[in-house]
Amino acid sequence: MGTKSLLSRGSELVSPGSQFRILNETLAAKNLPGFSETLNRSGIGPLTPVETEIFQMNLGKLCNQTCKHCHVDAGPDRRENMDKDVMLHCLSVLAESPIKTVDITGGAPEMNPNFRWLVEELSKLGKKTMVRCNLTVLLAGEKYRDLAEFYATHRVEVVSSLPYFEKRRTDAQRGEGVFDRSVEALKRLNAVGYGIPESGLVLNLVYNPAGAFLPASQAQLEGEFRQILEKRHGIRFNSLFTITNMPISRYLEYLLESGNLEGYMEKLVTSYNPSAAMAVMCKNTLSVGFDGSLYDCDFNQMLEMKLEGPIENIRDYNARLLAARTIRVGEHCYGCTAGAGSSCGGATA
Ligand code: SF4
Ligand code: SF4
């Protein structure tokens, strides 16, 4: 397993076509049904959206980390970044829209040169803003030194990945030294009030499994994280979200290289849960790519599966036409519907 992006290593997994082919062949080899067929058989049929509640902006693939399981294939070598023009289009849509929540992700979205300006503009619009912060960016140099205070000023909800409460498992997945730096960043966030219930400043953590298995119970893991992080490091947080690793991009590479792909796909398919399928996040989310392209979710975005229908870019936003679309699905969607379900906000069923 390399520690650079798939792109910089020239991996065939950069191509969504290769990823689809691998997933299709894996299901076929095990005689497992495709995701659309499973949706139909369970009586849910094609997925359609409800009213958009979450406007997710992916600011680009630039990141200070190169985590082994990254579905974005992000890293320091990636240069894709949302420019101000695309952000202005997003802001003008949001100004006219009842959508209340904006979820900012990346890469490390803080590394986008217009990140702080965007948060300030969203704050002026009165939107609830969430940022998916990888924690170590708070320690990535002078430029980011006051990030915790900046977040607090704008009442940004911080959502941070911490795969485990121990160094070995966290560093194995996210890179050498990441656990210690994450702990330091969490302390900085706590110091300005994040994770302290009376402050109203929300700090949520995200757990994803270290290997080819589904997450354990969200409530149980949250209890363990809370107890151990507080006891060993004095760290507090609000909630823990469990997320299932999606069989795409660098996690797909891990599955292939470790010989776990067939077993993992079989686990996802046989753990299909219709309740989770009815609650998938693509139903109430709109995902915007760094170039303004629109997708049903961040996973479809990374697989370059643009929205079905005539609206392809935020420049052409039309809520009525978007509401009439069918959500595009693929075999990777089993990752959202297995067991207790998985979304950017954790378990769904
Ligand atoms: S998982 Fe997050 S922190 Fe890790 S490389 Fe991807 S975008 Fe960066
Ligand atoms: S991968 Fe995206 S489109 Fe598929 S079920 Fe999950 S959220 Fe929906």
Shape verdict:
globular
CATH architecture call: Alpha-Beta Barrel
Low-confidence stretches: none
Characterize the biggest β-sheet: 8 strands, mixed
- The end-to-end span amounts to 33 Å
Instruction: Give the fraction of residues assigned to helices.
Output: 25-40%
Quote the beta fraction. 5-15%
**Which structural class do the helices and strands define?**
alpha/beta
Strand order, main sheet: write it out: 6-5-4-3-2-1-7-8
CATH third-tier fold name: TIM Barrel
Radius of gyration: 19 Å
Commentary on this structure:
Keywords: Iron, Iron-sulfur, Metal-binding, S-adenosyl-L-methionine. InterPro entries: Aldolase_TIM, ArsS-like_C, rSAM, rSAM_ArsS-like, rSAM_sf. It comes from Leptospira ellisii. Residues 58-195 form the Radical SAM core domain. The chain has 349 residues and is of the alpha/beta class. The chain has a single domain, classed as TIM Barrel. Helices cover 37% and strands 10% of the residues. The chain has helices spanning 16-29, 35-41, 84-96, 115-125, 147-153, 167-174, 178-191, 218-233, 249-258, 261-270, 274-278, 298-302, 319-323, 334-337, and strands at 54-58, 101-105, 128-133, 157-161, 203-207, 240-242, 285-288, 294-295. Strand 1 (54-58), helix 3 and strand 2 form a beta-alpha-beta unit. Helix 1 (16-29) crosses helix 10 and helix 3 (84-96) runs parallel beside helix 4. The chain is globular, with a radius of gyration of 19 Å. The two termini are 33 Å apart. 47% of the residues are buried. It binds iron/sulfur cluster (2 copies).
